[in-house]
């Protein structure tokens, strides 16, 4: 069978038909069981350890089939098995198992997963909730609807769905030995960093409307004012004022007990294994226990919701997904039950803010700060002329709108050469005002993109987009030898500059500097590592901003080979740890290997 035919079959298997009715009670009469695997009578919930285990076992079977007959023949056998599995059980856990195979097996990665809006258009439709007047208080219930365009973005929800495939809590089957599980190094830290960055971006969007930052959901008895009606088939709406209720076998008190244990661990630096205190030696260890995974301190009990620390992160999502009014007899969960729709719900962000607070609480109190005393031997200038230098106006961090760069759209355009001609050589000491093609303003707008339904009709959906731009970074190698450096670019809204968790990762790449070179580095925003390596939606690279303009700050941080250690890592450096005592984030801008630049973001409405 050809690769094209295999991809066609794959698209058909991953497509999700719209349910015939909202009233499809798939849970047994006795209620939801945390311990039973999925069956035709159970809705597949990947938050449940037993359900995840079933999907992982199926993915391991797919890998065994692919290993037995490499190439197209083995892939065809996998798709045959997935088809029969979907007919005999819940198609959702079979689809999830198939996604696990495609993500983690070398043969599976040869096939293409259709985007979410193509395989499940009914899951990405806008809720079209009524907008409250902008003149109202941004903190009142109902104001969350202003952020529906962000939370309901199909690219964002697809990214969250994909993260759950790339980082399943129980690890993934080993392609070479499918009966064995692989839990990648720094798995939990990567999962934590991904959600922390999502929260930073969400709170920045909130700021553009004058809304307060997301409040952590840590009080399990207080009424929740954030109502949400996705208007998607198969999911129940949630009115305001509900409080968290337990599910059979797991009560609110059980969850609160595990909250208190984990919060105490973050504060004290100790996790308890029975009567034995264990020093937490890394955020990875705590994150594994919070999630939980096979690397949890609970050991063999990591799957048990009633274990010492339980599956706290996942079961928190589950309890919120099961919030229903007392008179609701549909048995349907909210959108938090499914990875492809979870990010639509405002409570998704409140819950993850609470989990992030636990992890960062330990990090801020017990983790050693980065050693920022040694500089990389490169120089990016803060200013050029005599006298006091204005803050955050580095002439070596240049931005250009792509439309202002002649020929950039041409396939043979050499951006590196063009940048060197414009900003290097005899222009090396030129300041931004002398470069008419540079800008200190970036632009976003709300576009209307069609979602095509199976019957051929189209529904327009709002999508935040930005005008394409490129970086031109000037830096001087201070060594008479070649240097291989890592360049990291972050962005933050001005009100958040002193809060390290609010710095948004934009890009990170490696560049080799020639001996004593004065380099001009061309880096188009379309190559952003957070998009191409981390899966963040390209159209959401920039926050919204405001119609009148909103002040942001870019920061470029350069690290050399000697600084690329396991502790600095790639996950959020240099903002992933507390700063040394007495040092503020703004002090970084005084270093020669760091450049900062203020920028305005203007949102163009209409």
Automatic annotation (TrEMBL):
PROSITE patterns: HEMOCYANIN_2, TYROSINASE_2. GO terms for cellular component: extracellular region. Residues 1-29 are annotated as: Disordered. GO terms for molecular function: metal ion binding; oxidoreductase activity. This is Tyrosinase copper-binding domain-containing protein. Gene3D superfamilies: Di-copper center containing domain from catechol oxidase, Hemocyanin, C-terminal domain. It comes from Cystobacter fuscus (strain ATCC 25194 / DSM 2262 / NBRC 100088 / M29). Pfam families: Hemocyanin_M. Keywords: Disulfide bond, Metal-binding. SUPFAM superfamilies: Di-copper centre-containing domain, E set domains. Residues 345-356 form the Tyrosinase copper-binding domain.
């Amino acid at each position: 069978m050809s690769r094209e035919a295999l991809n066609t079959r794959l698209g058909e298997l991953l497509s999700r038909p719209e349910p015939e009715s909202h009233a499809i009670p798939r849970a047994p009469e006795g209620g939801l069981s945390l311990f039973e695997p999925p069956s035709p009578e159970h809705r597949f919930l990947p938050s449940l350890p037993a359900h995840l285990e079933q999907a992982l076992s199926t993915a391991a079977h797919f890998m065994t089939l692919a290993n037995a007959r490499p190439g197209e023949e083995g892939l065809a056998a996998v798709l045959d098995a997935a088809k029969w599995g979907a007919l005999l059980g819940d198609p959702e856990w079979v689809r999830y198992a198939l996604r696990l195979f495609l993500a983690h097996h070398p043969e599976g990665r040869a096939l293409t997963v259709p985007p979410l809006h193509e395989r499940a258009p009914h899951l990405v439709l806008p809720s079209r909730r009524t907008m409250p007047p902008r003149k109202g208080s941004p903190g009142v219930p109902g104001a969350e609807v202003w952020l529906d365009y962000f939370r309901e973005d199909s690219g964002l929800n697809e990214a969250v769905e994909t993260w759950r495939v790339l980082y399943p809590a129980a690890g993934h089957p080993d392609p070479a030995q499918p009966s064995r599980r692989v839990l990648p190094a720094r798995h939990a830290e990567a999962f934590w960093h991904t959600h922390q960055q999502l929260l930073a971006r969400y709170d920045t969007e909130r700021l553009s409307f004058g809304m307060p930052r997301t409040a952590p959901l840590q009080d399990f008895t207080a009424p929740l004012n954030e109502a949400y009606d996705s208007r998607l088939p198969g999911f129940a709406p949630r009115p305001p004022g509900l409080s968290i209720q337990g599910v059979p076998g797991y009560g609110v008190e059980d969850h609160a007990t595990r909250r208190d244990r984990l919060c105490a661990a973050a504060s004290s630096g100790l996790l308890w294994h029975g009567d034995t205190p264990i020093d937490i030696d890394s955020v990875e260890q705590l994150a594994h226990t919070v999630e939980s995974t096979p690397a949890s301190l609970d050991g063999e009990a990591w799957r048990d919701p009633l274990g010492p620390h339980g599956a706290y992160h996942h079961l928190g999502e589950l309890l919120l997904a099961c919030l229903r009014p007392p008179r609701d007899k549909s048995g349907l969960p909210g959108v938090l039950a499914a990875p492809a729709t979870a990010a639509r719900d405002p409570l998704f962000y409140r819950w993850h803010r609470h989990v992030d607070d636990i992890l960062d609480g330990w990090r801020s109190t017990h983790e050693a700060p980065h050693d920022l005393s040694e500089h990389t031997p490169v120089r990016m200038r803060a200013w050029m002329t005599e006298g006091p230098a204005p803050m955050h106006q580095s002439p070596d961090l240049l931005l250009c709108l792509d439309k202002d760069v002649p020929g950039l759209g041409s396939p043979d355009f050499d951006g590196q050469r063009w940048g060197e001609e414009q900003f290097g050589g005899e222009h090396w000491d030129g300041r931004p005002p002398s470069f008419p093609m540079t800008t200190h303003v970036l632009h976003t707008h709300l576009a209307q993109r069609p979602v095509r339904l199976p019957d051929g009709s189209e529904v327009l959906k709002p999508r935040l987009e930005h005008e394409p731009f490129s970086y031109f970074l000037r830096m001087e190698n201070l060594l008479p030898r070649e240097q291989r450096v890592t360049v990291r670019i972050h962005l933050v809204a001005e009100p958040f500059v002193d809060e390290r968790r609010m710095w948004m990762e934009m890009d990170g790449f490696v560049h080799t500097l020639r001996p004593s070179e004065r380099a001009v580095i061309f880096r188009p925003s379309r190559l952003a590592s957070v998009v191409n390596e981390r899966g963040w939606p390209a159209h959401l690279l920039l926050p919204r901003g405001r119609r009148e303009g909103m002040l942001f700050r870019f920061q470029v941080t350069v690290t050399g080979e000697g600084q690329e250690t396991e502790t600095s890592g790639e996950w959020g450096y240099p903002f992933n740890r507390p700063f040394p005592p007495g040092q503020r984030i703004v002090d970084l801008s005084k270093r020669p290997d760091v450049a900062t630049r203020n920028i305005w973001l203007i949102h163009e409405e209409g």
